[in-house]
Amino acid sequence: xxxxxxxxxxxxxxxxxxxxxxxxxxxxxxxxxxxxxxxxxxxxxxxxxxxxxxxxxxxxxxxxxxxxxxxxxxxxxxxxxxxxxxxxxxxxxxxxxxxxxxxxxxxxxxxxxxxxxxxxxxxxxxxxxxxxxxxxxxxxxxxxxxxxxxxxxxxxxxxxxxxxxxxxxxx
Length: 171
Fold this sequence. Notes:
Layout: H1 5-11, H2 16-40, H3 44-70, H4 81-87, H5 91-118, H6 123-136, H7 138-154, H8 160-163
Helix pairs in contact: 2-3, 2-5, 2-6, 3-5, 5-6, 5-7, 6-7
């Protein structure tokens, strides 16, 4: 069977270390696209088409293939922390978990970048929020919604001319 773990390892079809590196590099490229779109306040296609849609879509495909191929043969489950730890002892499932983080954190970062630009969030405020989302996922999400009222109340919002850019409805 194609998804038999031992067959894949023997034939070299799945190299989890190589896949880890490829997925991590792809996600990093998405974060670079986000930073460039925030810094320039232009090139919204980098944010909307590449970072919010294309790269998370590819990562979701990798995640789905890993789960489809290796979940049934893995020990553990979702009933307790011990079960989750046992589940992640399977390297392919551990990789799937990592790819899940990469895809969702990038998608959330793209959402925050788009919202920040639409709401006039200053670039120098958005960059640390995106860095926090890149490194710590949900903490960056919280940071955005924590600084948003502060930016509004202090009148730090960017001018409408600075907010203008191409808009693409992708998702």
